[in-house]
Amino acid sequence: MAERWTDHRLDVVLADVGEHLDVPTAANLDPLPAVIALPSRRRRWIAVAALVLLVIAGLVVVAPARETVARWFGLRIEEIDEDEAVVTATFGEDVTALDVDAAIAAVALDPARLDGTPLGRPDAAGIPPEGGVLLAWERGETTLWVRPGDDGSIVVKRLPEGEQGVRVDGVGQTAVLFERAHVLATPSRRVAAGRVLWWLTEDQELRLESDLDAATMIAIGAALGAP
Amino acid sequence: MRYEATIRRLDPNAFDARVRQELASALRLATVVLGSPEGADDVVQVAMERAWSAIARYDVERPFRPWFLRIVANTARNDRRRRGRQADLRLRAEREREPVETSAEDVVITDLDRRHVLAGLNRLDVDDRLVIALRYFEHLSEVEMGDVLQCAPGTVKSRLARARARLRRHLEELADG
C-alpha cells in the first residue's frame, strides 16, 4: 500500500480531487455594490442597538480633550473647543478614497435629493476604517457617513459633562442632534467630532457632521431621510 | 481639495470585479473548511462584504489573493464553529461517469483513487484540510499560504508535512479496512 500512495501519486490525485470537488457556483453571489446597500433585519436591529448605546453614552461623564487626538485617550481634560483638529480628525489618512458617483450609488442615495440640499453633489468620498461610506463637502467642512449597521462596529459618542443629544423630529425614523463637539469612539479609533445630526432610516445609519448651523443640518437630514 | 492628498482611489465595482477573479478558489476553500458545499456560497458572500469593509486596512503592496482567501477561510471557520458539522466533501456528479483518467504526468487516476483520497480528507481536521487545499487545490506558494494562515513559511512547511502524513495514514487504514 505504501507503494500505491507514493508522494508523487498522492500529489497528482490530490490536485485532481481539487479540480473536481463539488462546490457551489458563483452564480448565486450578489454583486458587491448591490450588497453593501442591501437592507436586512439584522442591520436594523444592530442600528437600534447602536442608538441605545448612544443614549447611554450620552449620560457618561467624560471630559473631552481640545488638543491632539492622542490626548483623547486620557479623557481627563477640562473643556472642548471647536478648533481645526475637531474637523480634520474625522477625515484622516485612514480613509480610503472612493469614486463619488460610485459612493452615492453604493449607499442608495438619490443624487436628485442631494442636489436639492444646500450641499449639492459631494466633493469627495471615502471608506473609513469602520466601514460604510463617507461623503464630504468643502462647504461647512461637512461629512456624511452612511453605514449599513451590521458591520460589527458600534459607534459611541462620549459627550462633555452635562451635554446630551436632542431628539429631532422629521428626520428619518429616529434622529438625534449633538450641538457641541464631542468624542467619537469606535473599535478603530477615537476622534474629536463637531456638530452632528445622527439618524436611522429603514436600513441605514447616517451621521452628518458640519459647521453649518443646526437648522440647515436638520433640513438636509429631512431631505435625505424622507421616505 | 484637501482630502485627495490622503486617500486612494477605489470603487466597489472595481473591487467586485477583482474579487470575482478569486471566486472559484473562494468557493472551493469555503467548501473545504465547512466540510461540504452547503452554505459555502453564503460564506463567500459574507467574506466579500467583510473584505470590502476591511479594504482600508489592505496593504496594496501585498498580493490580493492570499488576503482575500484568508478572510474567506476565517469566515468559513466561524461558520463551521457555529454549525459544528462533520466533513462530507464529495466529487461533482459528472466525474462518476468518467471513472478512469490519465493525468498529464501519466498517472492513471481511477474513481476509486479519488474516493479514497476524499474519504481521507473527510477524516482530517479542518486545519489539515485547509493547509492541503491551499497547496494542492489552490496551488499557493509557501509564502502565500503563510499569508492565509498567518504563520511563517517554515511553519507552513511543517504543517503541510504533518497533514500529508495524517492523510496517508487514513488512506492506509481505508485500504486495510
Which helices and strands, and how do they pair?
The complex is a heterodimer of chains A (227) and B (177).
Chain A: H1 7-19, H2 32-35, H3 41-58, H4 84-88, E1 96-97, H5 100-106, H6 111-115, E2 124-127, E3 133-137, E4 142-147, E5 156-158, E6 166-167, E7 174-178, E8 182-185, E9 190-193, E10 196-200, E11 205-209, H7 214-225
Antiparallel strand pairs in A: 1-2, 2-3, 3-4, 4-11, 5-8, 6-7, 7-10, 8-9, 10-11
Chain B: H1 12-20, H2 23-34, H3 40-53, H4 64-83, E1 100-102, E2 108-110, H5 111-123, H6 126-137, H7 142-149, H8 153-176
Antiparallel strand pairs in B: 1-2
Helix pairs in contact in B: 2-3, 2-4, 2-6, 3-4, 4-7, 5-8, 6-8, 7-8
Give structural notes:
The complex is a heterodimer of chains A (227) and B (177). Chain A is an alpha+beta fold. Chain A has seven helices and eleven strands. Chain A is elongated. The N and C termini of chain A lie far apart (70 Å). Residues 38-92 and 150-161 of chain A have low confidence and may be disordered. Chain B has 177 residues and is mainly alpha-helical. Chain B has eight helices and two strands, in the order H-H-H-H-E-E-H-H-H-H. Chain B has helices at 12-20, 23-34, 40-53, 64-83, 111-123, 126-137, 142-149, 153-176, and strands at 100-102, 108-110. Chain B has a two-stranded antiparallel sheet with strand order 1-2. In chain B, a hairpin with a 5-residue loop joins strand 1 and strand 2. In chain B, helix 4 (64-83) packs across helix 7 (142-149). The longest helix of chain B is centred in the last third of the chain and has 24 residues, at 153-176. Chain B is globular and about 55 Å long. The termini of chain B are far apart. In chain B, 39% of the residues are buried. The interface between A and B is large, with 52 and 63 residues.
